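Field: sequence (string)
Field: structure_tokens (string)

Example rows 1 and 2, in order.
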Amino acid sequence: MEQVGVNSLVVALLTASFTGMVMVLQTGVQLARFQSENMTPGIASLALLREIAPVLTSLAIAARVGAAITAEIGTMKVTEQLDALESMGTDPVQYLVVPRLVAAMVMLPLLTILTDLVGILGGCLVGVTKLGITFHYYLDITFQCVKIEDFMSGVLKTVVFGAIIAIIGCYTGFTSKGGAEGVGVATTRSVVASFILILVSDYFLTEILLKVI
């Protein structure tokens, strides 16, 4: 859990803060063309909570943690440490996969909650300093537009994204072969597969959650 959560905190928060800033800046400038810039806080916060923060946080964790999982298990595979575990009567899946799966499914939603908060605050900073929106007005419009369902939608997605990252990372690690070069190839394959599956599953999860929540 430390690897997925604490060690990934800086990357996730930096990603969220600047994403929130860019979202508000772009949204504010474009809405100003239609004299609707007063809706900037609500629109930017909705997009951030429902889509941007969960997906970008998951992609960042996939690149960092998913690659690390594959490299670690892949190295154990090519150095026959997995065979050693089996010879001692230890189930490699129970010993290596389950803890990583649980950690990813628990810590990624918690990280996303923090990135939601930091992203909104980053957007608020730009709204106040660049767009002339007052702090109280920004928060007032945000709370008017954003409902608990919007927040929960993004957090629930990351439970699935966490499972994808852990399962893909472990699978590519277990199936790696060919020494150090093979581990490198497996690591790249793990990150690419995680990215694609996160983006594809995001569409279907969005479609389901819009009907359910």
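Row 2 begins here:
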Amino acid sequence: MYPLIRKALFAIDAEQAHRFSIQALKLLRHLPNCRKLPDNPVNVMGLTFKNPIGLAAGADKNGEAIDGFAQLGFGFIEVGTVTPVAQDGNPRPRQFRLPEAEGIINRNGFNNLGVDVLVENVKKAKYNGVLGINIGKNATTPIENSLDDYLICLRKVYSYASYITVNISSPNTKNLRSLQYGEALDDLLQALKAEQQALSQKNGAYKPLVLKIAPDLNNDEIASVADSLVRHKIDGVIAGNTTLSRESVAGLPNAEQQGGLSGKPLCQLSTQVIHQLSQELQGKLPIIGSGGIHSVASGQEKIDVGANLLQLYSAMVYQGPKLIEQLVRNIQLKD
């Protein structure tokens, strides 16, 4: 069935196809549960996940189709990235398929309707599983004032999220990745951790704070990030975001488009980062493995090198929802 749907979707612009898919998923929420998958519960960050396979941020930026995505069998869902106020993102076209490699390049630039709209959508959703909300900064906010945007979003989403992801690794917002390094990262994490503690006391509930990092960090940079995560008692880390590297797709149509590369070509790089991060962290905080999962074997490899949970998005563009079921039924978690 999905190959026919994919053929129709691939006949139109990638962003239009995504918009169509979101509308279809909004309708799906009205149907009886589509995929009755076995529970494979896992406890991570003090939360119980129905299974270890999650939807990565970027698929549902505004939280419009939470109930529809839940019907596909995900054990958790992450919405966003959301910013304090609505923004259009970068000029179109800004999404490009690389079908020969099952990859996607995007330079969206955090296009979203703003945190208030997302919160209203989350409040309307009937989904009662683990929900992550991914937060970012507006493009017009100077990098030195980034903390202000993250604090605004953290305060607004705190009551409605199971966990909150701090996205400092998109390559499509100018200078954003500079927040991953040294003093800038320490200052950001220290302030966000303090706010998390204050919100925890105010709301009577502790919501884990997760950092999403880039797959383009070298070993020394990964070690430095790991040290900061542990020192500031951050609850988890997502490895990782899209890559600027084109080594795995060199020569393919659209390969030189500016933006972040996701999908199958990212898989090996992502797994390497997870492995290095796991060695640095030594189990002190959990890793959510994200980037290029396209099969049970590719997902299992991420678990085997240290991931506690998995997230996917791009693979669904090429394979449809069947991959979710395959992963849920076959991924073997480490004891």
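free_text_note (row 2): DSSP finds eleven helices and 13 strands in the chain.
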